[in-house]
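Deliverable D4.2, example record:
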Amino acid sequence: MLWLIIGCMAFYTYRKEKQFKLERIEWQLSNINRSIIGAYDGGESDISDFVLFIDRFFTNSLYDDIHIAVYNSYGRLIAQNGPQNVDLFPHTSHLTHDEIESAKLRPSPIDPNEMLFYSAMRSSDNQICVHTSMPYTVAIAKIVDYNPLIWLFVTVLGIIATVISYLSTLHLSRSVYLLRDFAHRAASGEPLPDKIIDGNFPHDELGEVSQQIVNIYRAKDKALARSEHEHLVAQRAIEEKARIKRQMTNNINHELKTPVGIIKGYLDTIISDPDIPPSLRDSFLKKAQAHTDRLSDLLKDVSTLTRLDEGSNQVEISDFDFHDLVFSLASDLEVSKMAGAMEFTYNIPADCWVQANYSLVMNAMLNLVRNAAAYSKGSRISLNLIDRSEVDYTFSFADNGNGVAEEHLPHLFERFYRVDEGRARKSGGTGLGLPIVQITFNTLGGSISVRNARPHGLEFIFTLPKGKNPNS
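Output generated by the structure prediction step:
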């Protein structure tokens, strides 16, 4: 198409240029006629001298071969630039209106095979008529005809236009090719190649639209993959929760069998032997009562875990000063002697407001104290604020006891896990204290972890969300 347009434009330009050059020659002939008529109208006494002046003026020019003849109203030749008394236009009607008005390239009136540029003009009083002609020579033909270099220029221009068009079309069609490849792969579920994923579309309107389509597809694909992943995670979480429940149920059954069996054994012994000594009977009853208390504690802890597991989103959250809670905890420990001989110290600044449930946090603190008093064999318990951020506080609960072996640390928050099975049973633990502590902090939006303290002892690091002082 470009070659056709360029060819048509070149041909049209050539025709217009040739026509312009021909009209330029014809105009020059007409101008000579007007000059002679103007000299006659201006009172020139001898038209022959003026005709010869014009002939000399065009010597050695393009119009060197020009022929000028002037006739009177009777058709008699009165002046010319050629041989004298030789009529250059013997067959010309000098008074014909059409003949006088024309100025065209035509056959010679003497030799029809010779082409002339011919023009004629009469004076305003119709007394003289001027005829001017010039042969269409080879030199004039070369001037009028086209320059062969123009076709070389047109060819080079066409090649350049073709290369530019090809590169432009290749650039524009690149988006179409990539989009077609993308559509095929998307429809067949094949993975997208890097040239599409990396955004190699051209930086134009079509490239931007294509890239947006790919981005939308990728976003949808990622959302679908994320949804499938979340579904898989949720399914695993449900399966893990069911596994934990089954494990917990088995552990509860196992934990219940021991105290129930012991209680039943003591009672059966007392009932089957009425003559049992009173001191032994009282000993059996006290032991049965201790295992009954342990059974009660176990059921209470199981109830707490179940309530937190199933109703975590129903826990009432409020803002309270954690310093006040720790102060009350220290007072209760001093009165109840729950920590035994261990000293409880704390460093919690006033106005340390947290967003949590007061009762659950207090119960978690008591569980940590009971755990330290029962198993640490230390002499001191400390509770300190160690860090704060824009969203939460970080606290440390530590003892200076024995600590635990490193292999036990990852399992301390597992339900019914005991570092020392025999010692734990003797101390009356249910194996649910630390799991309750962990689920409490997780439910309240915090976290808890455990590590061995330096130089010795066990340290629990827990966080609670920041709260607001209603009076500030």
